[in-house]
Design brief:
10 helices, Calcineurin-like_PHP, zinc, six-stranded mixed β-sheet, MPP_ADPRM, hydrolase, ADP-ribose diphosphatase activity, 347 residues
Length: 347
């Protein structure tokens, strides 16, 4: 009841609701159409701090919930329209500690303290903890919140789209549609994934990248790719967005531009996705996680590729989240802590 009352107050108290918008006004006085929160790679676990896979970076497992709390409090003050969580919401270590459900409840509980709808993208750590069927039946399936958009494109592909405001569209992708960790071993997509990895990576442990440098490093077990069905679907969504003259932002756990991430974090068939995105004038931005160092690149089509810095490798005295203010002619990312501010002009 308390949460419902707070939501009603937000909508009824128009003066309060407009204050953050006035603070976000551009120098020319333009007001944003809406704003949304963005965060990636929380990887919460109630365990002691540790190191990353290569043992080169410290990971702050327990403290990541405090950094999420910092973010949700700020978003509540700013009255964001919605929040995009870009995957790896809890860490894979929860599985071996038999705490996956408990950890997920903790993080979801923190998100639910905010009035804003949260749209969840799935990353590799979601699949370390849960099978696809379980995820589809969990709070991490946020497709029902799309409202004026579409439901899932297929029973087993977690991708959907919706319009957060007239003239704008958000598309969430399933970057583990074709993968080893995101598919059952008896499925066709799993078998195709095994074949693809073995063609590019002869290591016994497929989590280790191939010895070749460059783009081949992406062929590892903790990555994945997009099926033909998903590529056809997003092409259709973007074609309609072109016709409606909408501005589209695409969200994925895996980045798809090699200049916006380390090659080891790229989607397997990133080139196929890039070719679809570049064909459509409606696409203005592609946001991803996975690479905890973050990255940014504006490609030749004018699409902004943003890879968000990961919460899990952010020191307790810093932060790693952003608020994006959406205007008629551009978006403005206001970063916190490790995430820098960016002005994202539309192509």
């Amino acid at each position: 009841m308390l949460r419902i009352s707070r939501k009603l107050l937000i909508y009824l108290s128009s003066g309060t609701a407009h204050k953050p918008v006035r603070r976000a006004a551009m120098e020319d006085g333009a007001q944003p159409v809406f704003s949304f929160g963005i965060i990636a790679d929380i990887q919460y676990a109630d365990i002691e701090d540790g190191l990353n896979f290569l043992r080169t970076r410290k990971r702050f497992y327990r403290n990541s919930i405090q950094l999420l709390r910092n973010a949700t409090r700020r978003w509540e003050e700013q009255r964001v329209r919605c929040v995009l969580q870009l995957g790896d919401i809890i860490d894979g270590f929860n599985k071996s500690h038999d705490t996956s459900e408990q950890a997920l409840d903790t993080v979801i509980g923190e998100f639910e303290k905010s009035f804003a709808d949260v749209h969840h993208v799935w990353g590799n750590h979601e699949f370390y903890n849960f099978c696809r069927e379980t995820l589809l039946a969990s709070p991490l399936n946020s497709a029902a919140k799309a409202g004026n958009g579409s439901d899932l494109i297929a029973d087993d592909i977690y991708a959907y789209e919706f319009s957060p405001a007239p003239g704008f569209r958000f598309v969430l992708l399933d970057a583990y549609d074709v993968s080893l960790i995101g598919r059952e071993e008896n499925s066709e997509k799993y078998k195709r994934s095994v074949k693809l990895l073995q063609e590019h990576n002869n290591n016994p442990d497929l989590n280790h990248p191939p010895v070749f440098h460059g783009m081949e490093q992406r062929f590892v077990k903790f990555n994945g790719g997009f099926s033909k069905e998903q590529l056809l679907w997003i092409d259709e969504v973007l074609t309609l967005a072109d016709q409606k003259q909408e501005r589209v932002t695409v969200f994925s756990h895996l980045p798809v531009h090699p200049n916006a991430t380390d090659p080891i974090c790229l989607a397997w068939n990133y080139e196929a996705m890039l070719s679809v995105l570049r064909f459509h004038k409606s696409v203005v931005c592609f946001m991803a996680g996975h690479d905890h160092d973050g990255g940014y690149y504006i490609d030749e089509s004018g699409i902004h590729h943003i890879t968000l810095e990961g919460v899990i490798e952010t020191r307790p005295d810093s932060n790693a989240f952003g608020t994006v203010y959406v205007y008629e002619d551009q978006m403005v990312l206001k970063g916190n802590g490790r995430i820098s501010d960016k002005v994202l002009k539309y192509p």
